[in-house]
Each structure stands twice: as C-alpha cells, then as structure tokens.
Model the fold of this input.
Amino acid sequence: MASEATVPNPSEKEHRLRETWAPAHGFPGVLSEVNNQLLGMRFMITAFVFFLVGGILALLMRIQLITSHNDFLGPQVYNEMFTMHGSTMMFLFAVPFLEGLALYLLPMMIGARDVAFPRLTAYGYWVYLFGGVIFYTSFLVGAVPDVGWFGYTPYSAAQFTGISTDFWLLGLSLVEVAGLTAGLEIVVTILKFRAPGMTFGRMPILVWSFLVIGVMILVAFTVLLTATVLLELDRAIDTAFFDVDRGGNNLLWQHLFWFFGHPEVYIMFLPAAGIISMIVPVAARRRISGYSLIVAAIVLTGFVSFGLWVHHMFAAGLPALSMTFFTAASLMIAIASGIQIFAWIATLWRSNPVFGTPLLYALGFVFLFVLGGLTGVMVAVVPFDIQVHDTYFIVAHMHYVMIGGVIFPVFAGLYYWFPKMSGRLMHPTLGKLSFWTNFIGFNLTFFPMHIMGFLGMPRRVYTYPRSLELDGYNLLATIGAFMMGLGVLFFLIDVIHSLMFGEEAGDDPWNGDSLEWSVPSPPPIFSFYTFPIVRSRHPLWDAAGETDPELEKLQLALTAEPQTWRGNLVTESTDSRPQAIQYLPGPTYLPLGAAVATSIIAIGILTRAYMMSGFGTVALFIILMLWLSPKRKILAMLRESYLPEQAGLPVMTTGPRSTIWWGMICWLAMYASSFAALLYTYFYLRLFTPQWPPEGIPRPEIWFASLSFGVLIVGSAAQCFGLSCFRKEKWTASRIAIGVAIISGVIFIAMECWEFWRVGFTPRTDAYASIFFVLSWAVMGSVLIGVILSLTAAWRFSRDYQEYWESMTLHLELASLQWGLTAGVGVLGFITLYLSPYFL
Amino acid sequence: MTSQSTDTPEKLAEPSPTDKADTRLWVGIWGGGIAWTVHFLSAALIAEWGCLTRLSARSLWGITAVAWSIILVSVVMALVAAVVTWVAYGEVLRLNSRSDEKNDLYDRLGNRRFMARTGFAASAFFLLIIIAQSLPILFFLSEC
Done:
C-alpha cells in the first residue's frame, strides 16, 4: 500500500485519470479509439448521413409519383429506389442511430464511465460502416438491389436476380452483426455497470427500454441473420431452402423475415417512447405518472412483439385459425402502447410545461403515433387487411408509426441532449420552424395516402393511371415530402449555427432529473470523476437523503481511480450493490482488424472468390485469439493493484460478477435463437413435404448418430467436471477432464464428417438435405467453439493457472457454458434429425 | 505495493443466497410472459400443423382434435397465468403491509415493491392476452 507521502493530491489524480482516458491522437486515434462517447457519436452521425441519403431517395420517388404516367424514373430504377430507401431507413439508420444514442448516453445515465466491452463497440461500428459501404457500392457497379427491403423469395432467388441481391444480403448481414454486438453491449452494461443504489426500481425509463430492446435484438436479429445465411446458401451453393421444385418453401422466408421484422419496429419504437418518457416529466416539471405500469408495458411489448409477425402475411393464404391468434395479439399490444400514452398525458395534465422544441416534437409524436396506432388496429383485422394489403393505406400506416413513432422522438431526443453533447444550446426559433415544417409536411405527405389506398393505389408501383384520379393526392404528398426535407434542413442549419454561435448550455439547461445532467456539458470522456450514489428515481430532483458510510468510503477510495488504467465499478444486477472493479481496454486496432476480416469474408462471398473468404476467416480467427486472450502484462498489473485493498473490491472476478460471464450468456442466447430458427425451418419444411425424407433418401440411421452424439455429451460433461475440479483445486483431475472434452469434441467432428460422406446426398439434393446439413453444421459449430475454448484453457494450464486462477476459472466457466449449450443443441439436433423422421 | 484478491475460488464461485420471497417476485415478473409464450407457441404450432394433417379430421362431439388441443392448452396456460397473477398480487399486498421496515440505501423494500407491482401488472396483462388469443378458437370448433 502506498505511503501517505506518495499519495497524489486530488488534482494530480484527476490529471492522471484524464491522461488514462484521453483518446489517441490524430488519424491513428480515429482508427483505434474504443470509448463509448466517441463511438456513440460516430454511430449517430453515420446513421444520420444514411438518413439523409434515404430521404433523398424518398424525394426522388415522390418526384416520379407527382403525376400519373411520369417518366422521371423508370420501373427498374424505381424498384431500386424503394428497396434502398426502405433498407437504408430500417437497417442503416433507425436501429444504428438508437444504438449510437444508447452507447453515448447509457453510461452517463447509469453512472458509469464506459460500456462493458469497449472493443466490441468499436468492432460493431466498423462492421456497420463497412456493411453500409457495401450496400451503396452496388450503385457504383450498377447492381443496385431491387427486391424490396424485405427480399421476398422467389424473386430474391438466384434464378431471378443477380449480384444485386447478394449486395443486399451481405451488406445487411454485416449490419446485423453490428446490431447484435450493440445489443449484447447494452444488456450487459445495464445489468452490471449501474451505479450503487440504482436498483431496478430506480432505473430511468429509457434505460428500461434499452434493456428490453437489447434482449429483443439478441433474439430477433439472430433469426434474420440465420435467414439471410440460408438465402445466401441457396444463391451461392444451390441449397434448396426456398426452391419449391426441390421441397423448399417461399413462405418460410416470410415467416423468418417477419419474425425479425415485427420486433424490429418495436426495437425502434420502445427507445423512442423511452426518449419521450425522459422529456415529458422534465418539461412538465413533475415525476412521471405510472412508472411501474410503464415498465410493465415495456416488458409486455418486448414479449408480445414476437407474437405478431403473421399480420404481415394475412394475404399469404395461411389457415384462418392461425391468423386469428396474430389478430388477437396485434390488437392487444395496443394496450401496452396506450398505457404509455396515458401515462404521458397524466404527467402533463394540470402541469405547467415548458414548451421547448423537445416537448413540441414529443407532442407531435403522441399525435402521430396515436393515428398510426389506430390504423394499426384496423389492419390487425384480417378482412380489412386483405382489402388494404399492398395499397397506400399500408404505406400511410407504416410511416405514421415509423416517422411519427420513431423519427419525431429521435428529433426530440436530439434537441434535448444536444446541449449535453455539445455544451451549446440550440436556437429555439429554428427548432420550432423545424418542428412545424416537419409536422405539417409529414401530415401533408402521408395523410392523403390513407385515402389513396382506399381508392386503389397499389404500393411499390412506379406510376399509376390517370383514370384513378389520384394526381391531386400524389401532388399533395410530394409537396409534403419536400416540406419535410425543408424541416430536416432547418434542423441541420440549427445544429451548425448552434455549434458555431450557440449560447453555452451549462450542465443542466432543462433542469433534468437523471444522472447525465450532473456531469459537465460537454461531458469529460470518462463521464464521472467518481461514481455517483443513487438514492432515488430522480437523483437530481430529490434531496441527498441518508448516507451509507461504507458506500461513501468506497466512493472516496474510487475517486479518480483507477488512475493508470481504464476501469469501472461492477454492481449486482438487481440491487446494484458494488461487486468488483472491471478493467476496460484502451485504444487498439484489433476491432478494426476484426471488422476488416469480417468484411473480407463477406466480399469474398459476394464476388464468389471463396479463397478470399477463407483468408478472411483465418485472419478473423487469429485476431479473435489475440483479442480474447488475457494479456499477462495486464493480469500482472491487476494482481499488483492496490485497489482491492483500498476499495475492498476485487479487480479480477469470476461467475456472474464478471461482465464477461454475462457476455457469454448473451452469446449463448444468440446461438440458441439461431438454432431455434433452424429447428423451425426443419419442421416447417417437413410440414409441407408429403414424404419426409423425400423419395430416394433413406431415413437416417440412428445407431451411428447415437454414438457420435453420445461422445458429444461425454465431452460436455467432462468440461463441466473439469471446471468443478479446478474450483476444488484438484488440478490433475481438471486437466484430464479438459483433455477428455477436447478429444470428445474432435471425435464428434470427425464422426460427423464421416456421416456426411456416408449419407449419400449433398446439401444441394433437396430441401431435406439442405436443412440436414445446415443443422448438423450448427451443432458442429458449437462443438468447435467448445473445443477451442477447452484447448486454450489446456494451454493456459501449462503456464500460469495458479498465479491467475481467477482468470483461469473464468476461462473454464466460459468453456463450460459453451459446452452446456453444445449439449443442448446436440440433444435437440439428434432428436430432430435422427428420431423425428420415425415418429412424425 | 502488492495486493491480492483474498477470496478462494470456491468463495467467489458461491452464488448469493435467495429466499422464497425473492422467488415469488421473479415468478410474478417472468411467469406471465412464460405462460403466454408457451400458450402462443403451442396454439400456433397446433393450428399450423393440425390444420394441415389428419388431426383436423378427427373430432369429438363435433369439435375437431385441433380445437380440443388448443382449448386444453389455453385453459392450462390461462390457469398458470392466473396463478402467477395471484402470486404476484399476494406479493404486492405482503410488501405493502411492511410499512414498519426501515429502508436502506439500496431500497430493498422499495425495489421489491416495484418488482411486485410490475410483476402483477405484467402477469395480469399476459392473462388478458392469453384469454384474448384463446377466444378465436370458439369460432373454429368444427373446422380450421
């Protein structure tokens, strides 16, 4: 422990803290920085650029539709425009922007210095950027996607579209990967990095929204990623998932896509509503009404949104009984949204609100979203939906909920938090101008579309006959669209003006209630000099209250600490008691390298240069090994740290105390979700195939598979036993058990390869063969990851396992979790592939 | 200047103790959602599978096997959701009655009250949704 003579004074400590957290300089800094504020800002700016591009595409479409029989854009180009507009808005703008807002704001809101996995954040950003670039590179090579933002088969199959669809699929895949990393980041950060005292009951509503959507992203995005992989397999190596002639099914794509697609809109809506829940109480200068009900509504929405997807397929010819369940759910989910709306109204009722631009956009959102919700309830009814399906009524509904329900809150949030981000106030007049132009322009654009839909104007058509007499409505819509463009322009002017000439904002210009308003504007890169202690749901509004001497001692001990490495306090997930101090990595090129390698894999597939993909895979594997291996230098530094003694908290942790453990849980949830999508695919294809396996393919033999899957179970049990022995310091037994796990995994993979050779069919034979192989590969993939984790554990066993036993224990815990999942997917895979053909 | 983590591997690996009250709280939070998920998945799968297979041809008292299956699942899951709601409500009442307990910084009582209220509201909503999603079967008793 340092003597008093060597303890630095507070200003020296703060100086060292600033140095430790200072971003790397210049262009190398841009490439290597991992801090959440910088990356969150990048996410938001990049997403906003895509928003502008998507908006321009929309204006081009509106020019084409301004009059009947127009020839500004031909039919092919129009198809490309609406595909890129929809894809850009849904994949490249909305979710990434909200993720960027989360990455920037969440740590400040919960009293943390950064997110749980800074390098993962950086990787997510680069992959998102590269995915967007791949998307738009399609313009440069004249292969712009034209399959709609939903990519329905069979039109998106190889026999109907060329490389343009591969641009769509692969660009989209990278963006999905970025989304998944952000989802994982958000969930673990909220669960483990909340300041002491910030119990579940004291979390800001926006944090609740982010927590729920983080979990939703892990499930929904994985299913879409699985679906895009299946479609790309059909296109690249001629599997048959969506080829009807070989037992495939086109509705399967729709089910998989919309299983993602509907939660996706709630992934956008919930944080948007969360933004409103932050703004309304502050503007009303009252606590929000119905906090518990709002949280229940958010959780309800998160669950039930996964049960609505078929309402996008009401015209697809599904059994009427099936559709009724989705009608009921689609109607009932309006209750959850309604609860939030009534809560906001109740908060504002009899208050004396401050009508700043944020509140204007919030009120505009309420008005527009209610309208969109009403039409949503209408289209939830099957007979009505069949009448208006694929008409402009649906375009109107969708834009009322997407623009009204997401974009307006985004603008509200930008106007609300811009002073915090920049330290400058925005111009009130320009803000009001932006709002009214957007509001009037929006209604002028989209309200007439309800009527156009009733009068028979179909969607996704590049022109319409004069006899429909829709020229007037379309003219109005186009004028409105340009008004909206003007509204966005006013916003951009306001931003530039405010950055250059804006009045200084101060720490808390709105008299806000949440923690982000307690730090300077703009905030220091590490947000908090010391972690706050939260004593109420509205920490800045309520008096300090009772003190906790132990916690205050801890707070003092961690003031401007750690000084020489980036760290954050880890707390228990439900009641936020301090548990540990987590080391956070600083600037590194590894995330960029991993993103480049991932993109090389995608580009190789895109161009059918599979050697390039192979090279990318090897490069990615090497980078991940470097990334995930704990560095001895860092472990030694943590071992030597004085913080455990000074603060009474460990700096190396295992089990649920460790953020890495929780990250692994999220990874397992993703893998399980993907596997579930494959199981669904298997049984869906089975349902519509009269004979299964099809004629010419014998039923799979059980005996060989029983052996191989039995070996898998042995491996899983051995790994878990190895962990148990390690915890009891039975080193030899642990080594042997891990060895058994590795050998079992290798034997399983070898046996599966033998099985593939034995079966007598290939993935191209038919749909049964395709899903047989892909499901088997999914099981093998899980085994392979387990083997790698066990192998690396075995290697560490030969080095420093006793000196850094916490790190070794964590490693074995992660391997055991992976093997546990492997056992689960193994059992399910065995039952599905080898037993179900005999009894189903 | 050295410092070591003093806990043994076993101590760090030990999960913190939970009591029955905590379990009831978590049942209230998650139980309704799980009941709804099971109901929805079962009903959708039975409808999809049953309407396309021989199951729809079998009937008892004029009601198809598909309908009976869905009715059974609906009744069971509605009962589960109702029990969960009742448990959650019991927690709300129990915690509301503990007004004499001094609260600490971590607001154990307040946090549990919040979890109980939220769990009760969520499980009640899920019960309502299960009932709403079960009603359509009454119009498809004899055919899909």
